[in-house]
Structure formats: C-alpha cells, structure tokens
Design brief:
Layout: H1 6-24, H2 28-38, H3 42-47, E1 50-57, E2 60-65, E3 75-79, E4 85-87
Antiparallel strand pairs: 1-2, 2-3, 3-4
C-alpha cells in the first residue's frame, strides 16, 4: 500500500470539510435541522417538521419548527454565496 503525502491528506480533509459544510446549508430546512443537531437536539432535529411562514424575497425566507420548545420560535434564513442558506442570528426570535 502506498503512503500518501501530508499535502494530499490535507487536501482530502479540506474537501471533506467543505463538502460537509456545503451540505448542511444547501436548503433552509437542512440548515435549521443542522443547527438543531449541532446544538444537541439530535432526535428533534430528525423528527421535527419545518414550515415556511413567509418568503420576503428570493434570498430571504422565514421558517418555524413544529416543536417550538426546541430552538427558536422562528428562523430567518438568507441565501448567501454559492446559493447556500444561513440563519440570520440578528433576526431570530
């Protein structure tokens, strides 16, 4: 078996991290579920239903979860670079 150089291992690790972060922000629903999951609400992140309240523009949407005791009352998500969705923490209630 051939050994990989540290540079190749570093590039592979970087590609895996970038792909993981990109997947966690590909849609507003997945962005909210990822946030809940990494906050420690693993079961709720999988089982909760995410509903769109309204769409303020093509790049700004407001969502809520079925389980309001888990996480925020509603989430404001904005579409950023490369079409990825991020929670706007300045507007979350």
């Amino acid at each position: 078996m051939m050994k990989r150089s540290p540079i190749v291992r570093g590039i592979i690790a970087l590609v895996i991290v970038v792909a993981s972060v990109s997947y966690c922000h590909v849609t507003p629903e997945i962005a909210i579920r990822s946030n809940l999951f990494f906050k420690g609400y693993r079961k709720e992140a999988i089982s909760t239903q995410v509903y769109k309240i309204r769409e303020e523009s093509n790049s700004k949407k407001i969502y809520t979860c079925r389980n309001p005791k888990v996480g925020a009352k509603y989430y404001v998500l904005k579409k950023k670079n490369l079409g990825l969705w991020f929670i706007d923490w300045n507007e979350v209630k």
